[in-house]
Amino acid sequence: MRSSRNGNGSDVLVIGGGIIGLVTAWRAAQRGLRTTVADPGPGGGAARVAAGMLAAVTELHYGEQLLLGLNVASAARYPAFAEELTAASGQDIGFRACGTLAVALDSDDRAHLRELHALQQRSGLRSEWLTGRECRRLEPMLAPAVRGGLRVDGDHQVDPRRLAAALLTACERAGVVLHRDRAERLTVSGGRAAGAVLADGTELAADQVVLAAGSLSGRLAGLPDEAVPPVRPVKGQVLRLTVPPAYAPFLSRTVRAVVRGSHLYLVPRENGELVVGATSEELGWDTTVTAGGVYELLRDAHELVPGITELPLTETRAGLRPASPDNAPLLGPTALPGLLLATGHHRNGVLLTPVTGDVMAEVLTSGELPEVARPFAPGRFAPAAARVPAAPVSQEQPA
Length: 399
Hints:
Layout: E1 10-15, H1 19-30, E2 35-38, E3 53-54, H2 65-89, E4 100-104, H3 107-122, E5 128-131, H4 132-138, E6 148-152, E7 156-157, H5 160-173, E8 177-179, E9 183-189, E10 192-198, E11 203-211, E12 232-242, E13 254-259, E14 262-268, E15 273-277, H6 291-304, E16 313-323, E17 330-333, E18 339-343, H7 353-366
Parallel strand pairs: 1-2, 1-11, 2-8, 4-13, 11-18
Antiparallel strand pairs: 3-7, 4-6, 5-6, 9-10, 10-11, 12-15, 12-16, 13-14, 14-15, 17-18
Helix pairs in contact: 1-5, 1-7, 2-5, 2-7
């Protein structure tokens, strides 16, 4: 365990209080590090919009096989993580081992799903091919047009809003200090990150700083050019509907499909909520809910599950996913000593919450980036001469 060089500061300052920042802070505090979080609304961020699919198998994309290992490692941690967090916070996080069904509506989608099934099998993943009739037997609300599908019993779900609330409570109980204000500028002293200045002028000192501000991570003032994370915002619009008791059970598991080239998912909660999403829009910092986005989601969802138009629409929302150039997270030390990143998780932030917390706690306490995270070190985007070693020998601080 490290000790702070500054008696008035923290061992760790986490900038950003979304689920990634909070899990980092919670795990750091559990390791005995004096930890502070700076965020104007901790527990908010992308978690307010995310559906919470834990889809290591059905989220597999061509060219992202390296990310698969991290996704699978985190998915395997979820049952124990959910149990531990529930005990630490006294709050249920909505973890459901319900499985996922990915379906095809036409012959082209069926061919694509067959190719995905073959990729999953080559990757050592478990999924079962079903006929359209077998899909409808599992989920009777599916449209007659469904041509086939993949049953993935290992892809589950969690409620991101409950997850964020539980992490916030767990942080508070673990002694994490919360500053409910925006970090405006990184403090650099002696060639290393030394804390941050908040919007109200408060100066926070820390031995190590973790930048976990999601899509906003690259906008923090004071970052040297070589340490600016290459993270961009990707807009996603989602809908929430309510399944009245008379319609239950509407869906028993998460259902996914590609409709007109767009990815669609329906995530049923045990409390009767049904999440429908999500658009993927490269529109900068725009978070407007648009009539077009809502229409497209409802149109495609109706084609997949016709009965959905009978359900009350209770919420529309848009948020920003933090995406890196290769759509994989940035985890660990940067070119600036004392500054670490935990951002860029794109569509896998909720899934990667357990492994991110473990990885960041380990590197903060030992200076060693665990092997599972080494392919995702921030230095992979830096010029060769400026790259940070994925597993530095030591980052021990002078007494």
